[in-house]
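question for whoever is on the cluster today: can someone run the full assembly for these? two chains, 685 residues total. i dont have access anymore since they changed the login thing
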Amino acid sequence: MAHQIFKGIPVSSGIAIGKTYFLHRGTHTSTLRMDIEQSHAPQEVQRLQTAFTAALHDLEKIREKIPGELKEQTAIIDSHIMLLKDRKFQTAARNYVNERFINAEWALEKSVTDIEKAFSKIEDEYIRERIQDVRLVADRVKSQLYGTPTDIKSLTQRMILLASDLSPADTIELQLDKIMAFATVSGGKTPHAEIIARSLQIPAIVGIEGLSDIQDGQFVILDGFNGRMIVDPSEEELEHYTQLKYQFQEYQSQVNRNCYLPAETFDGYKINVSANIELFEEVAAVIDNGGEGIGLYRTEYSFLNRDDLPDEEELYEEYRDLSSIIYPQKVVIRTLDLGADKIATQFGPVREANPALGMRAIRFCRKHPKLFKTQLRAILRASVLGNVSIMFPMISGLQELFEVKEIYFEVRQELKSQGVSFNPVMPMGIMIELPSAVLIADMLAREVDFFSIGTNDLIQYSLGIDRTNKHVSYLYQPLHPAILRSIKSVVDAGHEAGIEVSLCGEVAADPYCIPILMGMQIDSISLNPQAIPGIKRIIRQATMDECKELLKKVLESDDVKTSNKLVKEMIFTNFPEELMFYTSLIEE
Amino acid sequence: MENIVDEQCFEVSISLDSEFGLHARPAAILAKEAQNYASDIKMVFNGSEVDAKSILDILTLAVPHGGHLVIRATGDDAQEAVKRIKKLINGRFEGNT
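^ ran it for u. tokens below:
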């Protein structure tokens, strides 16, 4: 493939330069060379053998179906069958695997090229053209090979992994140390790949169309800052990105060295910087990156990709382990925030015209009290150390909150009467992610111990857009005056009522948005663990006065463009380095 | 014209009367026939010797119409093999698929 640039959504920073490998390739494309471990040669030979056998089997089945009157047809198929069975052909390919330690596809390619060379010397044009039959047969074998891709475990060099989507199962099977970056076609519907990429600190891009057109073994640059993948880069591009890669590594090590310092401004304003995680395994990343506890533990993972539901014991153990490993830091456990379309089949198929506005999150839990109570019991039981808080997602109004609290207190009562211990003063909070909750934040604040503003959904619900829809994603503007006013009014209402307000959306990890949130005097932010060191560093370099001044200007501005410009200027003046190494939700 | 090279080796020389020379279909038929025998079977044309059990080898020989070739078989069933292959070539590969 000649020089080409693919664009997608950057989800994990960094630069990777290397060869591609497409996971579970379903489409037929050409192949490039990949080197395999010597010890994996027998497996690769077996792949080749299996592919030959399967292709032969297919042809024989086709041959059986040809009616007698089409004798000429069988002659061609017969010669193809003979080609497939040809010892020379198979041996040549096998030898390439065994002697050169290359992948089966490339070995096959090489042996076809050799045959082509031999045929090109033939003077008889008719026979010379039989090479086409050899090609056709090789293609059949090749498409069989795609059904059983080279075991990624056998690759010697680290690859840039391309995939339609990465399921949790894929990421479990993959030898992650063999992967230097990810790029996927699907647009972040499952954040799993992103989380894995971020916790491994490897660059990743999602939502790139046409990935399957890229050959395996193609040399590319993956730019996780800007969501660009450059196929067959020029000398200049290679030089530029190689330099950027080293600069970033240098910057990262510098930032990471200081990640344990508190996030305190020059003028003494302190902000708590905690982590959003959804897998227990990510706790290590929280600790490594100087996270001050877990501001959002997403509990969906234990309910996904299974046919049954987790029982109380399983959930209790998960939450208890989490609480003890992060102790004395705090962990905020959010109750199930899933749509009915995502959860185990025993609830029957749920088809909703509009799942985002349907039976999900707290509504789903209320409809299935048994499931909800199981989770509440598990969280309460895991709260004994005193560092666990509970949080309810997607609260739309006061009545709903009362009903949820009623169930919650019922469960507490049950535990009490059964003599099971829990923390009776466990903080209870809600996510503010619906415009209705923003408008009645003052009423809600009287009923809970803390707020957490979920800006990812708040922006989508407020502006009426699905950010994964590429036709309207341009409207996803964190600095839209309506969004800024919403966040500010929630912070003010919370503080008025004397409760803590935290923010756990992606804007918390956006260097451009941080000064604005600081200006609003947000108490804490919660973000992906890998972004913590950089964000803490910005906070440490800022002064509260600057942030308040910036906020004042931005709140007065009536258009997003001006706001974006103001914010950029401020960042550019104060933290020029951050501009280079961070992806921002703010438009150019 | 059959030659007994030794007890286990038989040879036959034959000229090809196929319309297009030894192209894909006859090559396939020939290789398939050769594969029915345990003997090692070679085909010689124009100084090149190839494996008669390999369709690719036969094709690369590119024996033209009227081309003169030698079939040489070595093994227990060598005699039977050369006889059958000769018959196949002389019969212009008819009656076989």
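summary bc i know u wont read the tokens: The two ends of chain B are 25 Å apart (CA to CA). Residues 78-90 of chain B form the longest helix (13 residues).
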